[in-house]
Amino acid sequence: MVCGGFACSKNCLCALNLLYTLVSLLLIGIAAWGIGFGLISSFRVVGVAIGVGIFLFLIALVGLIGAVKHHQVLLFFYMIILLLVFIVQFSVSCACLALNKEQQSQLLEVGWNNTKSARTDIERNLNCCGFRVFDPNETCSSDCFKSHQCQPCAPIIEEYSGMVLRFVGGIGLFFSFTEILGVWLTYRYRNQKDPSANPSAFL
After folding, report:
1. Under 8 Å CB-to-CB from 93, ≥6 apart: which residues?
2. Which residues cross the membrane (predicted)?
3. What is the structure's pLDDT at 106?
4. Contacts of 79 (CB under 8 A, 6+ apart)
5. Which of 82, 130, 148, 177 lies 20 to 30 Å from 93, alpha-carbon distance?
6. Please, which pLDDT band fits residue 18 given cuts at 50, 70 and 90?
7. Can you give the pLDDT at residue 42?
8. What element of type H or E holds 127?
9. Residues 182 and 56: beta-carbon distance below 8 Å
10. φ, ψ (nearest 5 deg) of residue 141
């Protein structure tokens, strides 16, 4: 049976925004857990993860309030923001899935050269030193550096990069379709009349 009624559209929209709220809290929690247990020392990475989580939480809150109160202005802004997020997320997800090995390698090298704190985390967690060549004269935070028998990090990272990009691209693609579903539900819900409202009131 197709969900076409006012109550059904409202409940679906509320459920979708509760899902976004849980995802945003999970994202913030994972970032806080990572820095709390010393897995991530890069405040830039943690800041981005927490920022995305807070942004998603605020969007979900706007959508939830708009759905509960059938607030036209909130629902309109929620629909526009969700559409923009869908476009960006869909594009990024497709790019992640379309990268070949050479492009992945170039992207990893650029990231390695531009993030010193993330580089330290990688060296410590993967027990490797340097990106493509191990240089005993450079500083390194991995355990193998004491014995000067480290292998470079590039082969280890590249071994998992394809899997990680496919995972991130797949998750992003899945959530991008939930966002376009949210846009469609919001559009329908905005144009439906609340049966409990005054019949002479405007939509």
Report:
1. 168, 169, 170, 172, 173, 176
2. 12-40, 46-68, 75-100, 167-187
3. 81
4. 182, 183, 186, 187, 190
5. 130
6. very high
7. 56
8. none
9. no
10. -100, 5
Q: What whole-number distance in Å separates Cα of residue 63 and Cα of residue 134?
A: 51
Q: What is the pLDDT of residues 102-136, one digit of tens each?
A: 877 787 777 777 777 677 777 777 788 877 787 77
Q: What is the DSSP string of 158-182?
A: HHHHHHHHHHHHHHHHHHHHHHHHH
What is the pLDDT, as a whole number, of residue 192?
Answer: 79
Q: Taking phi first (over 0 means left), then psi (-120 to 50 degrees means alpha), and beta for anything else, what does residue 43 get?
A: alpha
Q: How far apart are CA 175 and CA 55, in angstroms?
A: 15
Burial class (CB in 10 A: 0-12, 13-18, 19+), 202: exposed
Provide mean pLDDT across the span 48-59: 86
Give the C-alpha separation, 146 to 161, whole Å.
Answer: 27
Show the CA angle centred on residue 188, arms to residues 172 and 56, nearest 5°: 35
Work out the mean pLDDT of the chain and round it to a whole number.
80
pLDDT category of residue 202 using cuts at 50, 70 and 90? very low
Q: Residue 172 contacts by C-beta under 8 Å, 6 or more apart in sequence?
A: 89, 90, 92, 93, 96
Q: What is the DSSP letter of 71?
A: -
